[in-house]
Write a structure and sequence with these properties.
InterPro entries: Ribosom_uL1_bac-type (IPR005878), Ribosomal_uL1 (IPR002143), Ribosomal_uL1-like (IPR023674), Ribosomal_uL1/biogenesis (IPR028364), Ribosomal_uL1_3-a/b-sand (IPR016095), Ribosomal_uL1_CS (IPR023673). This is Large ribosomal subunit protein uL1. It contains 8 helices and 9 strands. It is of the alpha/beta class. Strand 3, helix 3 and strand 4 form a beta-alpha-beta unit. The longest helix has 17 residues. The two termini are 38 Å apart.
Amino acid sequence: MARLTKNQKVALSKIEANKSYSLQDATSLVKDITNTKFDSSVDIDVRLGVDPRKANQMVRGIATLPHGTGKTVRVLVLCTPDKEQEAKDAGADHVGLDEYIAKIEGGWTDVDIIITMPSVMAKVGRLGRILGPRNLMPNPKSGTVTTEVGKAVTEVKAGKIDFKVDKTGIIHASIGKVSFPADKIYENALEILQVISKLKPSAAKGTYFKSIHISSTMSPGITVETKTVAGI
């Protein structure tokens, strides 16, 4: 068993064993137990009572965090020439089409989000074997295949995130930085939880929110009492 560091012991001492905290208390406590020298990300892990192997129980959605994620999101827009200036004006980091398709085919994937247009999906589609495993493949359901590329770039830069339940029934998402005020972490967490609640599949039976945990980079997880979350 790995030995705990001094900081890990201090962090664990601030969390009561077997206690579930209110969402508001958890988002305050996560700041108190984080001792990294860098600005840690704050993450939320939600275990759902669904079977993601069944298509009618897949949970995938989009949330626009009111205070963003605190991360610099690198955006590539694959579009026709008439849309390039719109994408650049919205703040896209890379804009083009054929030259970037060639770069990706050569192994380049140094971006966080790729946005494209329906009219060029025939070209982009052949990149699926490269982009799919990296969760970079544009998808209409996540709003990354659209004719309004400028709007899509603006939303992503402002804090729009795409999430999907994994094969174990858990949604993992980043909801800010530990440098955020606690109330902003709370409001971001509440937003994504309420969005997940609205996406409950009709085929899902029993308890939908099995568990919720909040943590920061290298910190222990804090258990959230689901009954304290408004609107779920």
